[in-house]
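Supplementary material to the annual report.
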Amino acid sequence: DTGVSQDPRHKITKRGQNVTFRCDPISEHNRLYWYRQTLGQGPEFLTYFQNEAQLEKSRLLSDRFSAERPKGSFSTLEIQRTEQGDSAMYLCASSPQPGLAGGREQYFGPGTRLTVT
Amino acid sequence: ELKVEQNPLFLSMQEGKNYTIYCNYSTTSDRLYWYRQDPGKSLESLFVLLSNGAVKQEGRLMASLDTKARLSTLHITAAVHDLSATYFCAFGNYQLIWGAGTKLIIKP
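Predicted assembly:
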Protein backbone atom coordinates (compact mmCIF):
# COMPACT_ATOMS: atom_id res chain seq x y z
CA ASP A 1 0.00 0.00 0.00
CA THR A 2 1.47 3.30 -1.07
CA GLY A 3 -0.53 5.61 1.16
CA VAL A 4 -3.77 7.53 1.33
CA SER A 5 -5.32 8.25 -2.05
CA GLN A 6 -7.97 10.79 -2.98
CA ASP A 7 -10.09 11.22 -6.07
CA PRO A 8 -10.48 13.49 -7.90
CA ARG A 9 -7.41 15.63 -7.39
CA HIS A 10 -9.11 18.69 -8.81
CA LYS A 11 -12.76 19.60 -9.18
CA ILE A 12 -14.27 22.71 -10.71
CA THR A 13 -17.99 23.11 -10.26
CA LYS A 14 -20.63 25.77 -10.58
CA ARG A 15 -22.31 27.22 -7.55
CA GLY A 16 -25.34 25.19 -6.56
CA GLN A 17 -24.05 21.87 -7.87
CA ASN A 18 -23.37 18.84 -5.71
CA VAL A 19 -19.91 17.29 -5.53
CA THR A 20 -18.57 14.07 -4.05
CA PHE A 21 -15.00 13.22 -3.14
CA ARG A 22 -13.54 9.83 -2.37
CA CYS A 23 -10.76 8.84 0.01
CA ASP A 24 -9.04 5.47 0.24
CA PRO A 25 -7.05 5.18 3.47
CA ILE A 26 -4.01 3.03 4.16
CA SER A 27 -5.47 -0.46 4.25
CA GLU A 28 -4.79 -1.42 7.87
CA HIS A 29 -5.87 1.95 9.28
CA ASN A 30 -9.21 1.96 11.06
CA ARG A 31 -9.49 5.72 11.59
CA LEU A 32 -10.20 8.16 8.79
CA TYR A 33 -10.35 11.96 8.95
CA TRP A 34 -11.51 14.79 6.72
CA TYR A 35 -10.04 18.29 6.90
CA ARG A 36 -10.46 21.43 4.86
CA GLN A 37 -7.62 23.84 4.15
CA THR A 38 -7.86 27.27 2.60
CA LEU A 39 -4.91 29.18 1.20
CA GLY A 40 -2.50 30.40 3.85
CA GLN A 41 -4.25 28.61 6.69
CA GLY A 42 -3.81 25.44 8.65
CA PRO A 43 -6.18 22.53 8.11
CA GLU A 44 -9.60 22.69 9.75
CA PHE A 45 -11.11 19.50 11.15
CA LEU A 46 -14.37 18.39 9.55
CA THR A 47 -15.12 14.87 10.75
CA TYR A 48 -13.63 11.49 11.58
CA PHE A 49 -14.54 7.82 11.54
CA GLN A 50 -13.51 4.81 13.50
CA ASN A 51 -14.25 1.94 11.16
CA GLU A 52 -17.71 2.75 9.79
CA ALA A 53 -18.84 4.87 12.75
CA GLN A 54 -18.70 8.64 12.43
CA LEU A 55 -17.47 9.69 15.88
CA GLU A 56 -16.95 13.43 15.60
CA LYS A 57 -18.30 16.14 13.36
CA SER A 58 -17.22 19.76 13.51
CA ARG A 59 -19.85 22.26 14.56
CA LEU A 60 -18.54 24.41 11.74
CA LEU A 61 -19.78 21.83 9.24
CA SER A 62 -23.06 22.90 7.72
CA ASP A 63 -25.88 20.52 6.88
CA ARG A 64 -24.78 20.68 3.25
CA PHE A 65 -21.80 18.49 4.12
CA SER A 66 -22.12 14.77 4.69
CA ALA A 67 -19.55 12.02 4.96
CA GLU A 68 -19.86 8.26 4.93
CA ARG A 69 -17.64 5.27 5.39
CA PRO A 70 -20.10 2.44 4.79
CA LYS A 71 -17.82 -0.59 5.03
CA GLY A 72 -15.10 0.88 7.16
CA SER A 73 -12.75 1.16 4.21
CA PHE A 74 -13.05 4.07 1.75
CA SER A 75 -14.96 7.21 2.60
CA THR A 76 -16.91 9.79 0.62
CA LEU A 77 -17.48 13.45 1.39
CA GLU A 78 -20.42 15.10 -0.32
CA ILE A 79 -21.13 18.80 -0.51
CA GLN A 80 -24.62 19.75 -1.64
CA ARG A 81 -25.56 23.09 -3.20
CA THR A 82 -21.97 24.26 -3.32
CA GLU A 83 -21.12 27.88 -2.52
CA GLN A 84 -18.07 29.91 -3.46
CA GLY A 85 -16.96 29.78 0.15
CA ASP A 86 -16.59 26.02 -0.18
CA SER A 87 -13.58 26.49 -2.45
CA ALA A 88 -10.67 24.89 -0.62
CA MET A 89 -8.39 21.88 -0.49
CA TYR A 90 -10.15 18.89 1.07
CA LEU A 91 -7.70 16.61 2.80
CA CYS A 92 -8.21 13.06 3.95
CA ALA A 93 -6.01 11.34 6.50
CA SER A 94 -5.91 7.96 8.19
CA SER A 95 -4.33 6.51 11.29
CA PRO A 96 -3.94 3.02 12.73
CA GLN A 97 -5.41 1.57 15.89
CA PRO A 98 -3.65 3.34 18.75
CA GLY A 99 -1.23 1.28 20.76
CA LEU A 100 0.61 1.84 23.98
CA ALA A 101 3.28 3.97 22.32
CA GLY A 102 0.98 6.10 20.24
CA GLY A 103 -0.45 5.12 16.89
CA ARG A 104 -2.45 8.29 16.37
CA GLU A 105 -0.15 9.85 13.80
CA GLN A 106 -2.27 10.91 10.86
CA TYR A 107 -1.09 10.20 7.32
CA PHE A 108 -2.46 12.56 4.72
CA GLY A 109 -3.52 12.06 1.14
CA PRO A 110 -2.73 14.48 -1.69
CA GLY A 111 -6.01 16.33 -1.30
CA THR A 112 -8.84 17.34 -3.62
CA ARG A 113 -8.79 20.96 -4.68
CA LEU A 114 -12.33 22.28 -5.13
CA THR A 115 -13.05 25.46 -7.04
CA VAL A 116 -16.61 26.74 -7.03
CA THR A 117 -17.34 29.31 -9.76
CA GLU B 1 -11.32 28.06 23.01
CA LEU B 2 -9.01 25.50 21.48
CA LYS B 3 -6.29 27.24 19.54
CA VAL B 4 -2.69 27.08 18.44
CA GLU B 5 -0.43 30.05 17.91
CA GLN B 6 2.69 29.73 15.84
CA ASN B 7 5.34 32.34 15.48
CA PRO B 8 6.76 33.61 13.38
CA LEU B 9 4.27 33.16 10.55
CA PHE B 10 6.90 34.01 7.99
CA LEU B 11 10.64 33.54 8.17
CA SER B 12 13.28 34.28 5.59
CA MET B 13 16.78 33.19 6.45
CA GLN B 14 20.15 32.47 4.92
CA GLU B 15 21.56 29.02 4.48
CA GLY B 16 23.76 27.96 7.35
CA LYS B 17 21.86 29.88 10.02
CA ASN B 18 19.95 28.50 12.97
CA TYR B 19 16.40 29.42 13.94
CA THR B 20 13.48 28.32 16.07
CA ILE B 21 9.75 28.19 15.38
CA TYR B 22 7.47 28.41 18.40
CA CYS B 23 4.11 26.75 18.92
CA ASN B 24 1.85 27.62 21.85
CA TYR B 25 -1.34 25.65 22.40
CA SER B 26 -4.31 26.45 24.54
CA THR B 27 -5.08 23.34 26.58
CA THR B 28 -3.46 20.21 27.86
CA SER B 29 -2.76 17.60 25.27
CA ASP B 30 -0.83 14.36 25.34
CA ARG B 31 0.30 14.73 21.77
CA LEU B 32 1.88 17.47 19.72
CA TYR B 33 2.54 17.07 16.02
CA TRP B 34 4.78 18.82 13.53
CA TYR B 35 4.07 18.60 9.81
CA ARG B 36 5.71 19.97 6.70
CA GLN B 37 3.86 21.15 3.60
CA ASP B 38 5.44 22.06 0.28
CA PRO B 39 3.55 24.43 -2.05
CA GLY B 40 0.55 22.71 -3.62
CA LYS B 41 1.32 19.48 -1.82
CA SER B 42 -0.16 17.57 1.08
CA LEU B 43 1.11 17.30 4.64
CA GLU B 44 4.11 15.22 5.63
CA SER B 45 4.49 14.13 9.22
CA LEU B 46 7.77 15.17 10.83
CA PHE B 47 7.44 14.51 14.56
CA VAL B 48 4.98 13.26 17.13
CA LEU B 49 5.84 14.37 20.67
CA LEU B 50 4.18 12.28 23.35
CA SER B 51 5.28 13.55 26.72
CA ASN B 52 6.69 16.45 28.66
CA GLY B 53 10.35 16.97 27.91
CA ALA B 54 10.21 14.90 24.74
CA VAL B 55 12.87 15.77 22.19
CA LYS B 56 13.12 14.30 18.72
CA GLN B 57 15.66 14.98 16.00
CA GLU B 58 15.74 14.21 12.31
CA GLY B 59 18.61 15.64 10.31
CA ARG B 60 18.72 19.40 10.78
CA LEU B 61 15.34 19.54 12.54
CA MET B 62 14.80 19.07 16.26
CA ALA B 63 11.46 19.31 18.05
CA SER B 64 10.79 19.57 21.76
CA LEU B 65 7.75 19.69 24.00
CA ASP B 66 7.08 21.42 27.33
CA THR B 67 3.58 20.43 28.38
CA LYS B 68 3.62 22.63 31.48
CA ALA B 69 4.25 25.72 29.39
CA ARG B 70 2.07 24.34 26.57
CA LEU B 71 4.94 25.10 24.24
CA SER B 72 6.67 23.20 21.49
CA THR B 73 9.63 24.34 19.46
CA LEU B 74 11.02 23.30 16.10
CA HIS B 75 14.69 24.16 15.83
CA ILE B 76 16.49 24.33 12.51
CA THR B 77 20.24 23.90 12.54
CA ALA B 78 22.47 25.11 9.70
CA ALA B 79 19.54 25.59 7.37
CA VAL B 80 19.69 24.41 3.77
CA HIS B 81 17.51 25.44 0.84
CA ASP B 82 15.68 22.08 0.77
CA LEU B 83 14.09 22.89 4.12
CA SER B 84 12.07 25.71 2.54
CA ALA B 85 8.42 24.83 3.20
CA THR B 86 5.52 25.69 5.48
CA TYR B 87 5.68 24.06 8.90
CA PHE B 88 2.58 23.38 10.97
CA CYS B 89 2.15 22.31 14.54
CA ALA B 90 -1.04 20.66 15.73
CA PHE B 91 -2.32 19.21 18.98
CA GLY B 92 -5.13 16.97 20.05
CA ASN B 93 -6.26 13.45 20.35
CA TYR B 94 -8.03 12.61 17.10
CA GLN B 95 -9.56 15.95 16.18
CA LEU B 96 -6.37 17.92 15.59
CA ILE B 97 -6.24 21.68 16.11
CA TRP B 98 -3.74 23.34 13.81
CA GLY B 99 -1.65 26.46 13.83
CA ALA B 100 -1.65 28.82 10.86
CA GLY B 101 1.75 27.60 9.76
CA THR B 102 5.20 29.14 9.48
CA LYS B 103 6.33 29.79 5.94
CA LEU B 104 10.07 29.28 5.86
CA ILE B 105 12.20 30.52 2.98
CA ILE B 106 15.87 29.66 3.02
CA LYS B 107 18.00 31.63 0.64
CA PRO B 108 21.22 30.21 -0.82
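The first strand of chain A starts at residue 5 and ends at 7.
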